[in-house]
Sequence to fold (720 residues):
Amino acid sequence: MKRQYSLMILFIILFTGIVNLGYTQGIFLTNSRQRPNLEIQPLNIERHHINVSIENQLATTKIDQIFANPNNRVLEGTYIFPFHDDVAISDFVLYIDGQPVRGELLAKAEARATYEGIVRSMQDPALLEYIGTRAFKVRVFPIPANGERRIQLEYSQVIDVDSNLAKYTYPLRTDKFTNSPVGSLAVSIDIKSKHELKSIYSPSHTIAINRKDNYNANLSFEGSNVHVIRDFTCYYSISDKEFGIDLITHRDNIDEPGFFMLLISPKYKVKKTDIIEKDFIFILDRSGSMKGRKIEQAKDALRFCVNNLNDGDRFNLILFNTDVESFSKEMVPIKKERENALAFIEDIDGNGGTNINDALLTSLSEKPDPKRPRIVVFLTDGEATTGTTDTKQILNNVANVNKNESRIFVFGVGYDVNVNLLDKIAEENSGTRQYVKPKENLEVAVSTFFTKISEPVLVNLELDIDNITIKEQYPKKLPHLFRGSQLTVLGRYTGIGKAKLVLHGEVEGKKHKFSNNTKFPHEKTDHQFLPKLWAQRKVAYLVDEVRLNGEDRELIEEITRLSKKYGIVTPYTSFLVTEDMKDEQVFTRLQRGRLNETRQFGRILDYSTPIPKSAPQLPSRESKVQESVQLQSSKYQEQLAQTSEVIKVIKDKTFHRMKDVWVDSVHKSETETTKIEFGSEAYFELLKNEPELSKYLAIGKHVIVCHKNTCYEIYPPNKD
Fold:
């Protein structure tokens, strides 16, 4: 439904901002000759490209935007760019269609009056969160009928570095103002530092990171027809130590444990002598079902791995069908046996049954060398059909032999696999699982994985923090650290003050430790993303535990609580946040085997109706694989998941939409509220006295929010 305004028509075109701002720029159409109630199509964002250059602490941001006017009339507007008082801008240049344009810098009071006037006249609260900032304003005329306007903006500023950690924010989101996607969206950031770059991380977007060396890196994000729902944020750390150990904390409520994130990164470029020599065991299913395209791709993947092992590594190849065949009786040096291994791979063909149990036990029969990490790569496309076939017995046999000394990484090929067995093998043996769909390239999947883990620089990691108690840490068991990789650890903490972070690990069997002095604050509210990111990861672990080990009422209740409190919506937990659905219904559905059926939709489902009494529809093999893939991804996901249309998380609060009202999750139905009409003098007086409410009230015209022991109900004005 299109909005209609007379005299002044508000189109917030896009977010584009300044470091640590969270504010927007936009065009306000102000052509007074337009007829009242004339319906105007929103301007489209055809292009939004951001190029940032950060050298040491100086950041220069260049923005290139193209707006398309789909209307058959010329429009006139004002372009506004708000920014915070505490941001020091060293340069600010704006061009419209290649011509430099002079604008007006509004003081805070003038900017506030501008924002309030727009909110009043447009009856739209979206601008409220920008009240209290300065603004740069320039007139834009004409905006041609059925034409385009290109705006280029450039500004420079100094980025603060706190405890070796820098933060860059570009307010990007547009979803509050338009349902139209951005045609071409691209963010590119070049970072150059005189100190070594360690951690590079974005909680908001899945970024590609290209490290050129220890001092230069580029990170990027791009897409087409993108609905922009989140500002762009990235962190990077600088340190000349061997390992970067960077801490980010958040604590809104001093009576509850705080949240922390650790970013652990080794040097990008290390000497070959610093890379740990390792042992690899490759287990390949060569049963009849692998015959043809799958076996050929698997052979190509093995060739890649053998050719890319370091000269100091050892290896073995285990083939299995009804029987088990080994390349060697023991681990052998790759430098000596590379050519023989390639010839061995050439003769592999597919036939026979699937003896998973004996293949795994054969691979684990040789006692590991404590000085060398042992990595087992297990690849199969089917279920156990010969030998020991019972899932529980196979798992017990592996546990008795392995004793968590070798890490087992699982590749399932296709949908005809025993997902429960493969997932548990990986989970119980400190590895990961990966599934290759029928039309995917197996060689690419295995070779990409191998490249990531081929050069470990620190193994058997343990984390120690003195003076601070940590709990609910994820991942629970830290993985090996590889060259070019980065480990993200999330958890809760109690205690405050100075602390020493100590990372323990092993290099060629010798223990090493790396430390960093830091501080856990009593209160810290700068990193609002952390609570939800932690809860998101915990929910993924809990759901996986339910799936692998069966229903548990306490786990279901905890999943439900976290989902509702933090607004977590994924294909696996979306149904848990539905207000109409009680915990008992969730538990019943789990017992009836309907969990998989609901997860595949990835949206809020209506469970207010009674649960059907018909026999449950068991999940398909494909859905089991998809479920495992999604959960594995969620357990290591570093970005915030998308929020539901009926749930909004703003700073430290979660709002649930009840019919047309956004309700603070801490509000109780029996609690009295102070009622204030949207847009009234009392409304703006409240915002003036309690400016922190502005971000919450920007969510809509009908909001219930609790603040400082008072619950306010903002209700829309009478349409009459």
